[in-house]
Specification:
Number of domains: 1
Distance between the termini: 41 Å
Largest sheet: 9 strands, mixed
Low-confidence stretches: 183-190
Mean pLDDT: 87
Order of helices and strands: EHEHHEEEHEEEHE
CATH superfamily: Hotdog Thioesterase
Shape: elongated
CATH architecture: Roll
CATH class: Alpha Beta
Radius of gyration: 18 Å
Structural class: alpha+beta
Helix content: 25-40%
CATH topology: Thiol Ester Dehydrase, Chain A
């Protein structure tokens, strides 16, 4: 099956946070591809970048500090799943992956992340088909993985679920520009 080729700007348009990560030889598996275990690390980097690029500039320093390194109320990863479309080859020094991160659903006590990973590996591009006619081979990217994760707000002092703080929810709504599905009226206990 040939994978579709697209431009980076088209693929990452819906994602307010975009991150470029280097690949390393030590991330290879026995087959010579990037080990899928590392995608959890790549997705964590995407979520962390969201906190730094979206939330930190829009909330008070004390609110961000509590959220990012919680001693009271902060996020905890409840679940995550990955869908892999093709093995990612390591093309040597300079090999990179592009990560797109967004929050697609905001609930009273949690948010649902959507993450994508793209590669412009020459080997992947040669084996793929162009669907949006990139201007040059350097502009072509292949979607190699997609993931979804759920972060639940947790009160670390009381050891129980909590609500998303209003300033954090407002910052998410602003970043996602109403694309985020809001269900703020859903009870935290559900």
């Amino acid at each position: 099956m040939k994978l579709p080729v697209t431009t980076l700007s088209r693929a990452l348009r819906p994602f307010p946070v975009q991150l470029s990560l280097p690949l390393h030889w030590g991330e290879l598996d026995a087959a010579g591809s990037i080990n899928t275990l590392y995608f959890a690390k790549f997705f964590e980097a995407g979520r962390r970048s969201y906190y730094l690029q979206v939330l930190k500039p829009q909330v008070s320093p004390s609110s961000y500090a509590s959220f990012a390194a919680p001693t009271t109320i902060g996020p905890i990863l409840k679940s995550c799943q990955f869908e892999f479309f093709t093995p990612v080859p390591f093309d040597g020094p300079g090999s990179r992956l592009e990560i797109g991160t967004r929050i697609k659903t905001l609930l009273a006590d949690r948010f649902v992340w959507e993450l994508v990973v793209l590669s412009n590996s020459p080997r992947l591009l040669q084996a793929s088909e162009s669907t949006s006619a990139p201007a040059s081979a350097a502009d072509g990217y292949v979607l190699v993985a997609r993931g979804e994760a759920v972060s639940v707000m947790f009160d670390y002092s009381l050891h129980k679920k909590a609500l998303v703080p209003s300033d954090i929810a407002d910052a998410i709504r602003t970043a996602e520009q109403s694309d985020v599905q809001q269900r703020a009226d859903q009870r935290a206990g559900e």
